[in-house]
Queue: 2 jobs
Job 1
Amino acid sequence: MSLELLILGSNSAAFAHRRHHTAQLFKLQDQHFLIDCGEGTQLLMKRHKVRLSRIDHIFISHLHGDHYFGLIGLLSTMHLFGRKKELILVGPPGLSEIIQLQLRHSETSLNFQIRFTEFTPNESEVVYDHPKYTVTTLPMDHRVPCSGYLFREKPKKRRINRNKLPEVELSHLDIARLKDGEDILNKDGSVKYENRLLTKDPNPSFSYAFFSDTRLRPQLLETIKGVDLLYHEATFANDMKDRAEQTYHTTAEQAAQFAKDAGVGKLILGHFSARYKELDPIIDEARAVFEHTELAIEGTKFVVDGK
Amino acid sequence: MSLELLILGSNSAAFAHRRHHTAQLFKLQDQHFLIDCGEGTQLLMKRHKVRLSRIDHIFISHLHGDHYFGLIGLLSTMHLFGRKKELILVGPPGLSEIIQLQLRHSETSLNFQIRFTEFTPNESEVVYDHPKYTVTTLPMDHRVPCSGYLFREKPKKRRINRNKLPEVELSHLDIARLKDGEDILNKDGSVKYENRLLTKDPNPSFSYAFFSDTRLRPQLLETIKGVDLLYHEATFANDMKDRAEQTYHTTAEQAAQFAKDAGVGKLILGHFSARYKELDPIIDEARAVFEHTELAIEGTKFVVDGK
């Protein structure tokens, strides 16, 4: 099992330097999640050979256009291509109203159901609970209601040590108990096989935190501690710190310090201001603080597989 | 003076074969009109080096996404780039509500005024009256309220024949009278100079008719008779005539016959179905009926300059 993140778009407000608006394809447990959906996302998916039919979940962070203007077009194309499968959509208040209004005026009744979850601004809540993972909102500090998302696999079961199997006699029930971490007992209650001798530690549980447009959020440090991947906006370099503060954004140095303090595996910076044709100032100042930093360059795939 | 039409996008419902959704830049009398605005139009304008600031008029035909999903992004970028100039927007009922809702949720108050004219569906009306030209709606026959547009220059003034000027004596008032087609009179009312001897015919008045998504509209034949350029949708070739009828579209052959009957200067076909990777079936059957037919290939500029 692994975690994969494909960057589709990474620029802030204006299209510039061949960089598009925010959109990411995140893969976990064979599920594909689209996170944010700027204008032209369906074109970028085509370019990067991502099939629309793979997407069953879309998460939108907020209602600034560079994060969602491509959504209605994407939904329309899904409809046109005959999609029947339910789609899970999570986003801020107002998103559903905007979609419904546009569908109504085009007299379109979608072939598929949208199950819409409206997140509660300024609160952290589980917006999607799957048997194997959860998605939790991360309240951002931005000019409009805005949320990041934390994708976290639930703890996995212990793995049977197959080398030991020839030496022991186990029923199916015993195997299930071992995976749950229990010892195998004799009828009198004494220990027949110790769990630790027949099992190995579970595979790691992966996690990804997506920080959309925001000022620095030190109050979320504990929540995301130790995630494998952290995407954080870094609209500006640190010489524009005041501008970042005024516009409710973060600098690369601030994001790097945050990632370091949170002990994340890797930091990915994105949402670059159009003022940066070259992104050296962003990456250089971030790596000076936290070495394991990368840029959200379009078309780049980040993989965490625990190996 | 000339008329110019730059094709930005020309495909119907789905993006396909590197073809984008409908958008055209039409230039008349040094004014630039954007006609329809599918998703990604601002990217296409960038690709074809069209500056956003040139656009002062936008005409939207109807509220199917492939004709307007790029509008809100375009307006947002104009705002971001500091536009102050008023923008004239003409479109169907509902368009203004959609824009306002999206601006409200992004808490955006545009730096510039949008002067919105809502056209009346199923009626032909002048929606823009400029001293030198008019824009009239052309009611289409489609599944939702939909209108084409007829851009027509008003008759121009007669031109002074400069070769004759040394032979005569004219005041500024005389020149104005000659341009208006009047003779120059003596005080006793007798003709001093005959108009036809001192002037030449006016420059031609150009006209362009844009036929958005529609079934064939024979009732508009008289209205557009003799236009220099006719853009007409041709979603299908004629072997798909029934499908065209069902979906409220036109075939290439039908459009060509219409253009021939209307005696237009040139026919441009667009809004191609994604089923046509190659457009030979479309152009071949149209040219068999009306020779002066071209395809709306993206990036092509059509110029009519009367020479």
Note: The two ends of chain B are 10 Å apart (CA to CA).
Job 2
Amino acid sequence: MPNVHCVVLAGGSGTRFWPASRRLMPKQLLPLAGRADEPLIAATLRRIEPLVPPERVWISTGTRLVDATAAALPRVPRAHLLAEPVARNTAPCIGWAAATIARTDPDAIVAVLPADHFIGDEPGFRDVLERALRAAEDGWLTTIGIVPTRPETGYGYIEVGDRVGEGVHAVARFVEKPSREKAEAFVAGGRHLWNAGMFFFRASVMRDAIAEHMPALATGLARIEEAAARGDEARALAEVFPTLPSISIDHGVMEKAERIAVVPGSFGWNDVGSWQVTWEMSERDAQGNALPEGTIAIDAKNNLVRDLSPGAARKRWALVGVSDLVIVETDDAVLVIPRERAQDVRAVIDALTARGETDRL
Amino acid sequence: MPNVHCVVLAGGSGTRFWPASRRLMPKQLLPLAGRADEPLIAATLRRIEPLVPPERVWISTGTRLVDATAAALPRVPRAHLLAEPVARNTAPCIGWAAATIARTDPDAIVAVLPADHFIGDEPGFRDVLERALRAAEDGWLTTIGIVPTRPETGYGYIEVGDRVGEGVHAVARFVEKPSREKAEAFVAGGRHLWNAGMFFFRASVMRDAIAEHMPALATGLARIEEAAARGDEARALAEVFPTLPSISIDHGVMEKAERIAVVPGSFGWNDVGSWQVTWEMSERDAQGNALPEGTIAIDAKNNLVRDLSPGAARKRWALVGVSDLVIVETDDAVLVIPRERAQDVRAVIDALTARGETDRL
């Protein structure tokens, strides 16, 4: 098999983990699930390291996040941090990354993975990954579809088509986020999978697909390549990137191209969408609490406390008679919210925005 | 009227306001009710200042609290901080304070007030105080009795006897903390008042009463006085104080002496017994919350948040969908507890003690 490179999508600036996540410290740079000292993006790299070493990892991120991202990933070459001057959704950044990789490795197979997901069964995940990479080697634009465990209305779905190989199917169609009724039918029917935003392809196949389905993007990428050949990539990026179409790779390429494959998988995947999920993914005591070390908990059940403030190590938390709470403290903010309302942290973001307190966003 | 001196009892080391209150920073040194920047003891002095200026105020406290107490009361002469080497309840400290005052002002009238209570109606309180001081001038050992507003079982009561002057009654008897049934009968009967631990007397009258009813204390105080006359008070205190009987002034003197008077009063008195009371006494927003300035509160009701940590000024609290909580943060601890369970902070103290975490007590 040709070399496999991995492009990690790490441009997100999620607000659902405020006050831990900030514009300059988004979700993927925080240890929100799994090991308490491992940012989600570091876990993403560790998981794939048996298949892709750090020197073939590329990070797609935004200019403002480059330093913090590099600090979290000391083993990735600094030149592999691909900083978009402006965010243009996933098609331009994946196209640019694929072109960049192909400069030195034209036969490369590329795996595109989100930086900020949790995976419980890592060997199982790598098995599915290997299957997807083999399909990509065979020329398929390949994705992984997660076998749904609930009628989730927050994700897109992939309808499975004919079998085209060992554990690999053609994609019948991509389906937008469904209604509750449709989602229930999808789960019951067994022919729909969650679209988890993972993609696998030969660099040359993606280049050709972009040329066919997104000619404006192809033209822009060609300008960047020419400038790069002259050693003038930075200026071309700043000029060209803002003009590229802001479209997802799903809409721009996957839904239109031929030979789209999906590998179904079940490996304890979770997109770590809220503090509620952090609680679910955390180690918990017998009363269901995930608390800082040494906390005194009396008649306290199913709480999550994350103390990310500088003084956390010397601080003693004491919870008496409270249940199902999320409490998150940082240097400059404290959030107190019931677990079941964790999504409503957006209302706090809105209030901060309305007040102009942008330094806390 | 002869000079009025005030002895403020400030030896308490309450644990009910953990984590704000500590062994070295007890309740009376904290702003737990009323003005957010005024420790309870400072409010006590401010309230009586129209009647007793700071240069005639004396503070009875423990050796370990002298520095912090002096810092809270810069206008009280340092020599007026009477530091007990060991705590021996109120009879020895009141006897010692009265003797000390009498050295330079033998005709003094002495008012003894707890340092750590809240009073809502300050002019009304001063009216009652003046009445009590006049009774003291007439030779009565006088106390103030609070007209009860509920069948409280946590206080001692005073049964009112015959009227002996304008708003002044003889005390029929002192009653220990009653059962619930008795307390209800007291409130319904209208002849019982709460014992709030305030006492008023001529220094000479108290001296004579101690001589008659607590001869061992009188002997010990005489030894201290003799040493003080030789300029050797400190050593005498260290030797004598631990040998004095550890008895309250109520048990040791008031319940035995003749000519005991009580002045009934209603002036918004509160002994600030728990965080629940702090919430009741605090300024609250339309949703019943008492929160740090700038807090974002969404669907949040009747909460108390006190941030006493060094970073409080730059910290933004956000409460979403939580009600009736008390949250208190300090430099090294955070307490989260429902308001109605505020008394259960004792369980946290017990846990810290069991763990040997005495640095947090």
Note: The interface with chain A takes residues 19, 296, 298, 307, 309, 311, 314-322, 325, 327, 329, 331-338, 341, 344-345, 347-348, 351-352, 357, 360 of chain B (CB under 8 Å).
